[in-house]
Design goal:
By secondary structure, the chain is an alpha/beta fold. It is built from nine helices and 16 strands. Helix 4 runs parallel beside helix 6.
């Protein structure tokens, strides 16, 4: 498997409530990256307890965008996620879309399964596109926001992380970000886990990651990046439910239309993008090997 040529895959990470009826900018881009009218798209509804309703919405949306080969991957058990039929269908897909619901449910059903492994092969070797909205977006990273209250200020112990699918590493993704006022929640994550960079994605907004190449923001809102790796904080010394002191936390706001590419080999990166973004860009576009 390691001898196969690597092709650029894409991640389309959506903050939830994307337009599925009108211009459908985000879903159109997902379809285009998946092969356009020739795409073979599977929709995974494992995060949802109303799978048929979820599938009906995306069946209609992808159908209206001209996708004839579209199907529902209704994973209701670990047996489903390890079945040869489901793995074969992911192996043949050019686009894999994970709906909203509960990210903990999604990981409980497919995390570590043969289906999970097939999705990594699809992205990293075949150059397929993987999209996820709301819970499907949170599940994209190796560290996943499992539970967390939204407080007025960051609060020690108010959030907990779980294992995600690992298409991205050293980040944690939150969604419905501005609409549900989740900046304090993401700051709580970063305060307790400064190794991770926080990514907050607004509704009807997507962070598109071109593996090995660059990023783009689509839709109606913005992507917020919280970087606490050089911060000064007393979080280790305060009690649970106390608000930590956070000094020198970096925050980047990338509105829709923002686009950054990795600098060409040997070029001066400061001439093509702001240096504080370089590490983030290198991290999220990194070609993570199969494990």
């Amino acid at each position: 498997m390691s001898d196969q040529p690597h092709k650029n895959g894409h991640l389309v990470i959506i903050g939830g409530h994307e337009d599925r009826k009108r211009e459908m900018e985000i879903l159109t881009r997902f379809v285009d990256l998946s092969g356009g009218e020739d795409a073979n798209i599977v929709v995974i509804t494992a995060a949802s307890t109303v799978a048929d309703e979820m599938w009906s919405m995306y069946d209609e949306a992808f159908g209206s965008l001209g996708v004839e080969r579209r199907s529902h991957l209704e994973v209701t058990s670990r047996q489903d996620a390890n079945s040869e039929d489901f793995v074969r269908r992911v192996d043949q897909a050019t686009g894999i879309f994970m709906t909203g619901g509960d990210q903990k449910r999604l990981l409980a059903l497919i995390g570590g399964s043969a289906l999970d492994a097939a999705m990594h092969v699809a992205l990293k070797l075949r150059g397929a596109t993987i999209g996820g909205t709301s819970a499907g977006a949170s599940a994209m990273s190796g560290h996943m926001l499992a539970t967390g209250r939204v407080e007025l200020h960051p609060e020690k112990g108010s959030v907990s992380l779980g294992a995600g699918l690992g298409f991205l590493h050293r980040v944690v993704v939150d969604q419905h970000f501005s609409e549900r006022q989740r900046l304090s929640r993401l700051l709580s994550v970063v305060a307790q886990n400064p190794y991770l960079q926080g990514i907050g994605i607004d509704e009807d907004t997507a962070l598109v990651v071109d593996i090995g190449s660059g990023i783009e923001v689509l839709g109606q809102g913005a992507v917020t990046i919280v970087d606490g790796r050089t911060m000064i904080t007393n979080v280790a010394d305060i009690k649970d439910r106390d608000t930590p002191e956070l000094i020198d936390v970096r925050l980047h706001l990338l509105p829709a239309g923002s686009s950054y590419r990795l600098p060409a080999s040997g070029s001066d990166p400061s001439k093509s993008l702001p240096l504080p973004l370089l590490d983030f860009l290198e991290n999220v576009t990194k070609r993570n090997p199969l494990s």
